[in-house]
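Researcher: Structure for this, please.
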Amino acid sequence: MKTLQELQSIAAQVRRDILRMTTAAKSGHPGGSLGTADWFVAMNFNIMDFDPQHFTMSGEGEDMLFVSQGHITPVIYSVMARRGFFPVEELKTFRQFGTRLQGHPSTEHGLPGIRMASGSLGQGMSVGVGAALGKKMTGDKHLVFTMHGDGELQEGQIWEAVMFAGAKKVDNLISTIDFNHQQIDGTTQQVMDLGDLKAKFEAFMWKVVVIANGNDMQQVLDGMAQAKAMSGQGSPVCVILTTEMGYGIDFMQGINKYHGSVLSADDLPKALAQIPETLGDF
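Model: Predicted structure, token format:
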């Protein structure tokens, strides 16, 4: 377990990694990655129960995480490397042809920590429900976590899986929604308004935890601890995590352009100047 200060320090370095990886590759999705850095750090270092040195595809005897919006690989890979799944130096290979660190997660090369190819939006909830039911069938008391973009909730498959999970009382599943109100074509309100997410999940027989500031590490820790405490009580749990796209860089925050646009070589130093180097750049 890490202290609050240690987690904040790791998250700062992860944000530097995200910016450096995407700028070097001249492609990628930095906005959502920056916004969810605190959540991924909290999950991988304090919330979930797993051993990065003994990763298995089955996930037997450990908590499992499925990231449905697979385009945020910059934060996924950075946190995985900093957690010890693979060498930090490998982050230099991000988005290079034939490497393990593809733009969207791939299982082809057997990268530890990745159990599903994702990025075709809308599929992760179904996978998470299936994994959670599998744990119930084998008597595994560990939890299954999923992470979703808010724009992804415009996919119908999500709501089929949500309805199933609530009806079948899949209470070892905790699904987090990155609620940053931004997607590639504009705001979620402009593209297809999601309405009252809390009320919607509750209508499908889920319990809901709201984290008002998902870029505050203490709030993330408290909210996810609350979600874990609510599991095993007959209902799946949804966490609505309010974040800001591009968080940490003043000229990127809240701008949907950075969903899939990277910084120029000239802008990178300006951004890095706003985030301390805490663990050492790769």
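Researcher: Any notable elements?
Model: The chain has ten helices and seven strands. Strands lie at 64-67, 144-149, 173-179, 182-183, 186-187, 207-211, 237-242.
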